[in-house]
Design goal:
Blueprint: E1 12-15, E2 18-29, E3 35-43, E4 49-55, E5 65-76, E6 79-84, E7 90-94, H1 95-98, E8 110-116, E9 119-124, E10 128-136, E11 150-154, E12 159-162, E13 171-175, E14 181-185
Antiparallel strand pairs: 1-2, 2-3, 3-4, 5-6, 5-8, 6-7, 8-9, 10-11, 10-13, 11-12, 13-14
């Protein structure tokens, strides 16, 4: 059981018999009244965002979710196919359920897939991934004085802003939470 004092971004809870995760929360107290928690919750299945206010003595159950390590195989017409490495069972997750996670998936890599009611709903990514640069414009001489960036297309189709010294064929580390370039990888 969770209480509002346990809230943090990404915490999964059941509210009104529906599974949500906490997007934002803010503690506030009005005059002599008791403390309340103002939250933004995102529905796990539908993606709808709702705002709710809870008192500090409310309690919540965690949703019955299962997590499996699965290997990403391929993308076909808007569906991403994953395989359980132990049972070789394959599942397809629609692109709508993946959101921005689709830009960081590399074929034959293992990821944690979240299931709710035996239905795959999303993929948990590491904090950062290393991707190959497949297309970027060459840098001009003398562009090293100021903080200049240029667009670079990565192997997954994601476009990020990189420093001028990054060239095609380089590997770059990208933050999966913000989609920003972190550093050049060896």
């Amino acid at each position: 059981m969770y209480s509002p004092s346990d809230f943090r971004k990404g915490l999964r809870i059941i509210v009104d018999d529906e599974p949500y995760y906490v997007v934002e929360y803010q503690h506030f107290k009005m005059g002599r009244g008791k403390a309340n928690i103002r939250t933004k919750l995102k529905h796990i299945k539908t993606g709808a965002v709702v705002e709710k206010v809870f008192s500090s003595n409310d309690s919540f159950k965690p949703p019955d979710m299962e997590e499996k390590k699965m290997q990403y195989l391929y993308e076909n017409t808007g569906e991403f196919t994953f395989m359980d490495s132990k049972t070789f069972e394959q599942i397809a997750i629609p692109v709508d359920n993946l959101g921005d996670a689709r830009w960081y998936l590399l074929e034959n890599e293992e990821y944690r897939v979240l299931f709710l009611d035996n239905q795959a709903i999303s993929v948990e990514l590491p904090a950062s991934v290393i991707l190959d640069v497949v297309e970027t414009e060459p840098s001009a001489r003398g562009d090293t004085v100021t903080n200049i960036t240029k667009p670079a297309k990565l192997v997954t189709g994601l476009v990020v802003k990189v420093p001028p010294f990054v060239k095609e064929g380089d590997k770059v580390k990208v933050d999966t939470r913000t989609g920003e370039y972190l550093e050049r990888a060896n």
